[in-house]
Amino acid sequence: MAATPEGIRLLWKALEGAHERVAPAVWDAMDIFCVARLDEMIAIASRAGEGPVPVEDARVITALADRVRRFLQGFKRSSDGIGGVKDGVVMLSPIALELVAHYVGNDLYKIILIADVYDAFPEPLAAGAGVKIIANATMIKDFLKDLKEKTR
């Protein structure tokens, strides 16, 4: 399903109707790994305020976003519709996995696109880039919080 606003809305609706669940251990891992990295990104971007983001901060933000992206890419589809950890692999229900892949994936790529220009242009990120990074990281955190509440 496409990651359009309508596609995301339909996935949310399907999730509510399916009564899919995700084990607390999965949410613990998400909080420890993903939310903590998102909080780090927000803290780093906040230092710049509405001004330019220093190149070194942009490098750190990009690395953090990439770590979260790679962590989430390791998630697999659960065959029983219940999310959990099996053989060291995080399993999510099909609908929850689709939501995470599309929604979180898109916002992480937005952060990477904003912050990852320092290689081509080794100058601070434009004024306001930090605000956009904070907005996207906050949207991801809010999304994960909503998903956690709907899959308990």
Brief summary:
The chain has helices spanning 5-18, 24-48, 55-73, 94-115, 129-150; strands spanning 21-22, 76-77, 82-86, 89-92. With 152 residues, the chain is α/β, with parallel strands linked by helices.
Span of the ends, CA to CA? 24 Å
Q: What is the share of helical residues?
A: 55-70%
Secondary-structure element string: HEHHEEEHH
Provide the gyration radius in Å.
Answer: 16 Å
Structural class estimated from helices and strands: alpha/beta
Rounded mean pLDDT is 84
Domain count: 1
> What is the tally of helical segments?
5
Widest sheet: strand order?
1-3-4-2
Largest sheet: 4 strands, mixed
Strand tally is 4
Estimate what percentage of residues fall within beta strands: 5-15%
What would your notes on this structure say?
This protein is α/β, with parallel strands linked by helices and 152 residues long. It has one domain. Helices cover 67% and strands 9% of the residues. Helix 1 (5-18) runs antiparallel to helix 4 and helix 2 runs antiparallel to helix 3 (55-73). The mean pLDDT is 84.
Features:
9% strand, 4 strands, alpha/beta, 152 residues, 4-stranded mixed beta sheet, 5 helices
SSE arrangement:
Blueprint: H1 5-18, E1 21-22, H2 24-48, H3 55-73, E2 76-77, E3 82-86, E4 89-92, H4 94-115, H5 129-150
Parallel strand pairs: 1-3, 2-4
Antiparallel strand pairs: 3-4
Helix pairs in contact: 1-4, 2-3, 2-5, 3-4, 4-5
